[in-house]
Amino acid sequence: MKLRSIAIPLAEKTLKKCLKFHLYHEATELARLLSEHFSVFSKKTSKAREYFALALKCNDIYRLELEYGWKYSSYRSRYGTNAFHESLEEFKSTADVLQGMFDLKSSRLLFYYFELRFFQYYITDDRQAMIDICKQAISHFRSLKFNHESARSIFIIHLIETYLGLRQLDKAESIILEFLDETDKKKAMYYRYKELLFCLYLYQADLDKARPIFEYLKKSIRRLSNIYTRDRLAIYEMYMHILGDDKLNFRKINYRLNKVKQDKKGLHVPYLIGQAVYFYMHEPDKLIDRMDALNQYAYKYLKEEHFERTRQFIKILDKLIDGRYDVELILPEPDETINNHGIELVNYEKILEFMQARTSGSTASLY
Prior knowledge:
The chain has helices spanning 2-20, 24-41, 45-76, 82-85, 88-99, 107-123, 127-143, 149-165, 169-181, 188-203, 207-220, 227-243, 251-257, 265-282, 287-301, 308-321, 348-358. The protein is mostly helical. It has 3 domains: 1-93; 125-224; 226-367. The protein starts with a helix and ends in a 9-residue tail after the last helix. The relative contact order is 0.05.
């Protein structure tokens, strides 16, 4: 009995913590044990019933978390496939159901709701709704009595990438800087925000701002286990050298990319484009082979409509090789998101301006 006199207050205190942090699986078992204690040992029937009711309620919430967690995982697995876009009605109907569960106070269920709403608006390309749902999610997870940084960070990234996709670069930069200030420098999200800020400056070909962040990324990469991020860093470095008009040795980059699947468009397309730009300016005798590789890759992997801008840019590079500088091809407006999975690492117009400035005056009518 002496042990119970210590264990029961501790269990009640732990149960309150579990409820505060929305840990309903753990709360279910603790409430069940407390119900048994007050029913069998303390003979406090009202309190036993109270804990039993709480155990049932927590169990119901946890069952819903399991059910919708499984659905969310299956939805996420469709991303990047036609099945994802074909799931619009399913996403919407599931989000509608989850919206009616706000009063359950489950951060997991609300996370699934916000994510599915974001998927819904992403598929319909409703950018303003995407921004609004991200802001609503960030506000909600900020208002919790505990720091749910992982969930909040996902919607911060969504919000930044949406602004980048809209080319509202000033807003994106402002948000990144805001959350950089409040994020622990030792956490992976700090690196992620730094990487997004670097991508923004690289896209604008602003080397003065991009260079110090790139040095930070190189120095900190050893803390990350994500191989894709390490491969991506090699591509960043290539573009930094190109924009700095420095000599490049492609051996290291080739070594890394030879181990990467060919359909990793966010790696191979910017790499092949960067190679073509570099050889055009420095080693034109190697350019034809590189352009052949780029064209073959584009033909095989860049068939979707949202790659039209990149396809047109490749056609312009082809015209430049042939010496036809009076190209009439016009690049479509940017519509691909600038992020660490994007293809257009540096704005294509800026690349053409850069090539024009560093080659002979015969390129004066590039546009």
